[in-house]
Amino acid sequence: MGTELLYIHPSGHLNDLAVPVGAVGCLNAVTVPRLGRYAFEVTDEEIQAARVVAMDLHWSVGLPGFERLARHVRTVNPRAVQVVGGITAGHYAGELISECGVDHVLKGDSEVSFAALVEAILNDGDPEGIPNVFSRKTPEPLQRRMTSAEYDATDSLTIDWFPTFEKVANWDVAAFGQGRTLGVLRGCPMRCPPCYGSFASTFGRGYLQRSPESLVRELKRAESLGVENLRLIMGKPTPAHLSSLTAAMAEAGPFRFGSNVGFYLCTPPGPTDITALDHAFANPVAISVVPPEEHVPPPGADVVEREVAAWHEAARLAARSRWIQMDVWAVSDEQFGRLRRDFRDADARRVKVSYAAVWHVTRAGDPADTPFQRVREAMEPVWTFYMARLLSPPLAALLEPFRYLDEMDRDPSGLPNPGNALTPFHRVFMDNWRRHKMPTLPGLTFHVVPVRLAAGSRLAANQAGTRFKGALRAGPPGTIEILHGADPVKLSLELDHDGIRLTGPCPRADDAQGVAFVPDHPDPAQAPSGWRDTMASLGLAVLTFPRGTRPNRGANLRLTLRVQDLTVAILDESGDVLCRGRADLGYFHPRVHQPGGDFEDGPDAEHGATGHPGPEPGGT
After folding, report:
1. CB 121 within 8 A of CB 98
2. Tell me, what DSSP letter sits at residue 607?
3. Based on the domain organization, do 304 and 403 belong to the same domain?
4. Tally of domains within the chain
5. What is the DSSP letter of 414?
6. What is the rounded CA–CA span in Å between residue 200 and residue 568?
7. Does 609 map to a domain?
8. Would you say residue 600 has pLDDT above 60?
9. Helices 21-28 and 111-122, packing angle to 10 deg
10. pLDDT value at position 616?
11. For the chain, which terminal residue's Cβ has fewer other Cβ atoms within 10 angstroms, N or C?
12. At what angle do helices 301-320 and 271-280 cross, to 10 degrees?
C-alpha cells in the first residue's frame, strides 16, 4: 500500500542533501501518513502510489532539477496532484503552473495552507480559495499571514518520515549544511538583495517572531532528539526581542549538541546577549553576520556607525568567551578587504571574514524583476562546475579558489589568466562568475581516449581538492600517453531528474591500461591541433583497467554525477561492472559509517540495503 502524500526534494543544489526548513514544517503540519525522499532515491513505484506529490523550489539553483523532476512525476503518475512551495516557487508561481505543469504553488506562510490543501485533495474536496495557494483557477489567491501562535506551533525538527534525511542530517559538511534548521524569525523589516528570507512580495507585509517560550521548547526537543547540527534563523529582530530570546535560552540551558549551533543574525548582540549565548550552550556557537552597510533600505549613517561599533564590541567579547565564534560575510571585493582590515585586531580563531558572493547568484529579487527564463538559463549549467572539478584535474586546479562557492578566502574575480591551454576555460568561467556568480561552463563535453601510463609513474588519489577512489585516479603531467590507434569517444549527456549522466562505448586499444577523460575545447571550432595531447600534458583523470584485463567489445562507460560526487564505471554487455571509481570534493563527513551499499558492491550499490539509494561517506 502506497503513501498518499509523497514529498520529493529535487536534485541539483549546492548541497543536494540540504532540505528547506519550510518544507519540513509543511510536512509536519499534516496529519496523514507521509514519506520523504530525495530525487536521487525515489522510485517510480512510490511516485505511482502517491495521490499528492509535494516538491520544493526554494533556492533558485535547484530550478533545473525541479523542472526535470516535475516532468518525471507527470510522466510516471499523471493523476498525482503536484504541489510546490519555497521562496523561488512563490516568486514564479504563474510560470510554474503555465510552463512546468504543476497544479498548486504555495506562496508566503505555507504550513497552515499546505495542511488545508492536502486535506481538501485527499478528501476529494475543493482546494480553491485556500489562502496563499495559487492554481490555474486561482491565479491571485488571498494572501494571509499566519498568527504568532501558528508560527510558534510549527515543527521543523521531526524528520522520521524522511528516512535518508534523518540518517544524514547529523553529518558534518563542508558547506551549505543539511542539519536541522529552526526558524526564529520569518520575514524582516529589511529588503536586502542577498537575503532569501526578507522579501515582502513573497511573505507579505510584516514578519513573524517565535516567542521565547516556543524557542526554549524547540531547543529542548532538539536536544532530546539527539540533533548534532542545528541552525537558527534569527534575522534582524529588535534588540529587545533578541535579548528576551537570549535570556530565555540562558535560563533554560545549557543545551548540549554534538556540534556548533549556528545563528544567522543581523542584529548586533549586546554584552548581555553574548554572555547569555555563552551560558546557553555547552558547545560552540557560531554567529553568521551580514554587515549593516549591506542592509537595504540603507540605514542612516548614524545607525550604521552604531551597529558597526556594536559588532566590533561583540567580536571583542567573543574572543574572551568560552564558545562564541563569528563569521562576517562580505559580498563585494571592496567590502571584503575593508572588513578584513576592520577586524584585523580580532582573534582570528574566533572571528573570520568570508567572501560570500554566492548569495548574489542570479535569482528572483524583490520585487520579482528577474525573468524566469533568465534564472533558468543561468542555473541550467551549474552541474558543469562540479563535473569540471571532478573529472579534469587541470580544470579542478583552475576552479580550486572557488572552493564550495561559499566562504571563499577572496574574491575570485581577480584570478589571473593561466596563459596556457586553460585560457579559454578561464575566460568562460570568469564571464559566468561576473554575470551570475556561478563559474559554469555551458556546453561542457568530454571525449574518452585509451591511455598507457609512463613506466614507474604513480597516479594521484588527491588533486586540487578532489579525492579519487577505486580505479579512478588523477594522472599528473608526464604520466599519461594517449594511444591513437582507437578513435576517441564523445560521451553523451543525459540530464535526468535524479542526476547527470555521461555515457558512451568504451574505446579499445590492445596495449591500453585504462581510459582518460579529456574536456573538449569550449569552442570546438577554435580548438588547436593536438588538443587532446595538450590537455594530457596538463593532466587527466584516468580509469585504470584491472591488472591483466581489458574491456571487451560492447563494454560501455557510465558516469553519474549525484550529490556532489561522481561515480565512473565500465560495464560489460551484461551490465556487470568491470571496474569502478569515484571522485568527490570532501563535502560530507559522517560521524559513524551508515549501513547501505558501498560503491564497491556493484553497479546498483548506490541503491542501499533498503532498496533506496543512501548517501555513504563521500556521497551517494
Report:
1. no
2. B
3. no
4. 3
5. G
6. 45
7. no
8. no
9. 50
10. 32
11. N
12. 40
Residues 390 and 536 in one domain: yes
Q: Report the CATH number at residue 318.
A: 3.80.30
Query: The C-alpha cell of 581 is what?
Result: 571509481
- Cell triple for 21: 526548513
Are 569 and 448 in contact by the 8 Å Cβ rule? The answer is no
pLDDT of residue 372: 93
User: Rounded to a whole number, what is the largest CA-CA distance in the chain?
Assistant: 76
Average pLDDT over every residue of 476-502: 93
Distances (CA, A) of 144 to 58, 111, 141, 195, 549: 20, 12, 9, 22, 67
Predicted pLDDT at 2: 62
The DSSP bridge partners found for residue 493 are: 502
Per-residue buried b or exposed e for 130-141, using 16+ beta carbons within 10 Å of the residue's own CB: bbbbbbeeeeeb
Rama region for 336: left / alpha / beta (φ>0; ψ in -120 to 50; rest): alpha
Identify the sign of the CA torsion 211, 212, 215, 216. Answer: negative
Cα 595 to Cα 39, 598, 609, 611: the distances in Å are 20, 9, 7, 12
pLDDT of residue 580: 96
Q: Which three cell numbers stand for residue 321?
A: 568567551
**Among 120, 142, 168, which residue terminates a domain?**
168
Nearest to 502 by CA among 444, 543, 432: 444
Please tell me whether residues 386 and 268 are part of one structural domain. Answer: no
Res. 593: pLDDT tops 70? no
Cβ atoms < 10 Å from Cβ of 375: 24
State pLDDT tens for residues 560-582. 999 999 999 999 998 999 999 99
Residue (of 281, 272, 283, 203) closest to 235 by Cα position: 203
Task: Looking at the structure, tell me whether residues 370 and 467 fall in a common domain.
Answer: no
Q: Are 10 and 57 in contact (CB under 8 A)?
A: yes
**36 inside domain:** yes
pLDDT (average), residues 250-259: 93
**Stronger pLDDT, 478 or 616, i.e. the higher one:** 478
Q: Which domain holds residue 189?
A: 179-379
Q: Residue 122: which CATH number?
A: 3.40.50.280
Main-chain phi, psi angles of 603, to 5 degrees: -65, -25
pLDDT of residue 366: 61
Q: Which residue has the cell 599519461?
A: 480
SS3 347: coil
Which three three-digit cell numbers place residue 408? 571563499
Q: Same structural domain for residues 445 and 540?
A: yes
pLDDT in tens, 74-95: 999 999 999 999 999 999 999 9
CA 34, CA 13: separation in Å to the nearest integer?
A: 23
Residues above pLDDT 90, as percent of the chain: 67
Q: Which amino acid is at 424?
A: P
Q: How far is CA 198 from the centre of its chain?
A: 20
Kindly state whether residues 432 and 365 are assigned to the same domain: no
Domain end call among 109, 133, 168: 168
**Domain identity same for 425 and 516:** yes
Q: Residues 356, 221: one domain?
A: yes
Q: Which three cell numbers stand for residue 342?
A: 576592520
Within a domain: 604? no
Give the integer Cα–Cα distance in Å for 133 and 114.
8
Q: Is 193 exposed, middle or buried (0-12, 13-18, 19+ CB in 10 A)?
A: middle
Summarised one tens digit per residue, pLDDT across range 1-45 is 468 999 999 999 999 999 999 999 999 999 999 999 999 999 999
